[in-house]
Amino acid sequence: MIELKNIEKVYNQGTSKEVRALRNISLTIERGEIFGVIGLSGAGKSTLIRHINMLERPSSGQVIVDGQDLTAMNEKELREVRRHIGMIFQSFNLLSSATVAENVAFPLKLVSGPERLSDEAIAARVKELLELVELSDKAEMYPAQLSGGQKQRVGIARALAGNPKILLCDEATSALDPKTTMSILKLLMTLRDKLNLTIVIITHQMEVIKECCDRVAVIDGGVISELGTSLDIFTEPKQALTKRLVSAAVRRGLPELLRHTEIVSEYHEGAKAVIELLFLGPKADAPVIVEVAQECKVAISILGGSIDHIKTEPFGLLVIEVGGSRAEIEHAIEVLTERVHKVEILGYDQRVQLADLNDAAQPAAAATASAAMAHAAPAVTVSEGE
Questions:
Q1: Residue 23: which residues within 8 A CB-CB, separation 6 or more?
Q2: How far is CA 134 from CA 131, 140, 149, 231, 340, in A?
Q3: Where exactly does CATH 3.30.70.260 map onto the chain?
Q4: 2-250: CATH homologous superfamily?
Q5: Residues forming CATH 3.40.50.300 domain(s) in the chain
């Protein structure tokens, strides 16, 4: 288990300027958990993860790993602890002049004293690790001959060389394409289960959180602004930053069809309600729209939607427009609330009101024009020759 207690990190720049990178951070990460930390660039994500293995010492607070207070240790004691905390990086950090096998063996060869493995044992361990990350056939190749995903697999194998209990991933998929990112995340989930690892993932990609994280902390300006299960964060985001991140990942809110339409917050006669529906689990593929339209005698139009997963949980979003009388719309909303996970009224379509005003204005305008003509002076006819 990892505990961060009241962590503060202050950098001194010059004689008088201070930068507070982390502000009173407290987190508990359970054993065997895949825990995500997400935030914008400069929010303090990488600073936070480097406190877990004490590559950064806090200005105040405690870092406790499996009951040991790392902040009370000297450098020699920390080196021993770090052997059980692996780390992988965005830039892979491989030795370009060493083969894949030599890169994986590198941390094992740094061990001195009675705990150092024999060359034969190191070779066997490297072989085992390359099989684990599915790179057995790449052992004698060099990093320049590998794809980005293969380089990251080498980085993972190297991080696992010392049989760590914890694996830290600092933007480990940021340099990879989406397909390769998914393959690396699946590998991490497999390794967590096989090796009983605790994995901490630092990322700015909500897709990474959605794919594999059990829980997530949102960091903003050095502060944990939101904390919860991945399902909670995606379905019930509370803070403005979290809502923006979730919206970008699952396209929540108004679809393109209504981007330039005035949506008002109050109902007006004849308006259609614009509603976002959130479906979870078995309800994600239920024929709710058809059933509610028939039962409540309302017209429902689907404006946009998507079906996705949060880890293995089906997750669906629909934006619909519901037309009818006010009472009918309100009844439909009540029924929808019983049938789906969440109902959010985005507003009322202003186009209907404007159309009604235009329709009403046309006869009025014609009548005004007729009255004006009736009171106008008679036309002057100019006869030929005058």
A1: 8, 221, 222, 223
A2: 5, 14, 11, 31, 42
A3: 256-351
A4: P-loop containing nucleotide triphosphate hydrolases (3.40.50.300)
A5: 2-250
CATH 1.10.10.10 fits 256-351, yes or no: no
Q: Name the pTM for this structure.
A: 0.82
Residue pLDDT tens, the chain, 386 long: 999 999 999 988 766 688 899 999 999 999 999 999 999 988 999 999 999 999 999 999 999 999 999 999 999 899 889 888 999 988 889 999 999 999 999 999 988 778 888 999 999 999 999 999 999 999 999 999 999 999 999 999 999 998 999 999 999 998 899 999 999 999 999 999 999 999 999 999 999 999 999 999 999 999 999 999 999 999 889 999 999 898 888 876 666 667 667 788 888 888 899 999 998 876 666 788 999 999 999 999 988 888 888 888 888 888 999 999 999 999 999 999 998 989 999 999 876 544 444 444 444 434 333 333 333 333 333 333 33
